[in-house]
Design a protein that fits this description.
By secondary structure, the chain is of the alpha+beta class. The protein has three domains: 90 residues, no CATH class; 140 residues, Jelly Rolls; 74 residues, Phage tail protein beta-alpha-beta fold (3-Layer(bab) Sandwich), CATH 3.55.50. It contains seven helices and 19 strands. A seven-stranded mixed beta sheet has the order 1-4-5-7-8-11-12, with no helix packed on it. A seven-stranded antiparallel beta sheet has the order 2-3-6-9-10-13-14, covered by helices on one side. Helix 1 packs antiparallel against helix 3. This is Ferric-dicitrate binding protein FerR, regulates iron transport through sigma-19.
Length: 327
């Protein structure tokens, strides 16, 4: 079984002691996120109780070691060079305007929202799409090994599962957005034959062009918005009020402050279409402060368990909770 390299152990100690810098925390998260298709964003708050921080670190290390033990050992040089290359990408891949031919073998699924309420769509890779009214999403019933590609007409908020070796591509209104794992809102604007793309977390690369015009590209970071049409290709800031409007009607915001264990679990059930059973007398007494926004189901479960002194078992979409809890 492999163990984290010395640099990562050094960063882990700094995190536990509460004196890790923002750049070091990003380096620590980047290292973890290269190992699988899920994210665990470690809290930077130095006021986080030491016992909770210790539990989170233990779970993080155990998950990485478990995954490494399941795969055949790779040559040391190629493994670390691959990790370094992935880290340099910083979570994005620039769109080159290629065509993937992704519908050739996989049957297409059409999700149409012709009503007034938001529709939740869970894609084959567990990414969540909040399809807004008067919108149409097209995607395959399973993604191929190299790319995850969907087509959008209208507007949707995407929570994309992170898979470093399988980019997520959205085609909309003559433009293409490509990410590895992030959250963003994309709206096609028929009146201007353009799009508006707002990045909530991570980075997104966008490319597109209108007939007779050269291709334009942009790389957007969190809280940036691209307005693109035949007359402009402009990057702006996403203000807090605008982000709140983009999230309205969705279950994207999962930031809890002193919230009962039962309420957190109920929100988790509603978002991920799962069923939870609590077999603990102590867990219902827990009041949780935890941010599960833009986290996968597995990482959400890990963070809840770490902050509540609980344990869970998952089988066929059913989750059983046990543990001492917060007596």
């Amino acid at each position: 079984m492999q163990h984290p390299p010395p640099r990562i152990r050094e960063l882990a100690q700094k995190w536990l002691q509460g004196n890790i810098s923002a750049a070091e925390l990003a380096e620590f998260n980047d290292w973890y996120n290269q190992f699988d298709d899920e994210k665990l964003i470690l809290p930077a708050d130095s006021d986080t109780p030491a016992v909770i921080r210790e539990r989170i670190l233990q779970r993080l290390t155990a998950r990485i070691q478990d995954e490494q033990s399941l795969s055949a050992p790779a040559p040391k040089r190629s493994r670390w060079y691959a990790m370094a290359a992935a880290a340099c990408l910083g979570g994005l891949v620039i769109v080159a305007g290629q065509h993937y031919g992704w519908w050739s073998s996989a049957p297409a699924i059409h999700q149409v929202n012709s009503g007034m309420a938001m529709q939740k769509v869970i894609l084959p890779d567990s990414s969540i799409v909040w399809l807004k009214p008067d919108s149409h999403l097209q995607y395959p019933d399973h993604f191929g090994p190299n790319v995850r590609q969907v087509k959008l007409t209208g507007e949707a908020l995407f929570e994309v599962t992170q898979r470093p070796h399988q980019p997520f591509v959205v085609e909309a209104g003559g433009y293409t957005a490509k990410v590895l794992g992030t959250s963003f809102n994309l709206r096609v604007v028929p009146a201007t034959k353009g799009v508006e793309l707002s990045v909530l977390t991570g980075k997104v690369a966008v490319a597109g062009s209108k007939e007779g015009q050269p291709k334009q590209t942009a790389v957007l970071a969190a809280r940036q918005k691209l307005v693109a049409d035949s007359n402009q290709f402009t990057v702006k800031a996403v203000v807090p009020r605008e982000q709140s409007l983009l999230e309205a009607g969705t279950q994207y915001n999962m930031n809890f402050r002193r919230t009962t264990f039962a309420e957190v679990i109920q929100r988790l059930e509603e978002k991920f279409n799962i069923s939870c059973q609590i077999e603990s007398e102590g867990l219902p007494h827990c009041s949780l402060t935890v941010d599960l926004t833009d986290q996968s189901l597995r990482q959400s479960l890990d963070l809840i368990a770490a902050t509540s002194n609980g344990r869970y078992q998952m089988q066929d979409g059913n989750i059983t909770w046990s543990g001492e809890g917060c007596r």
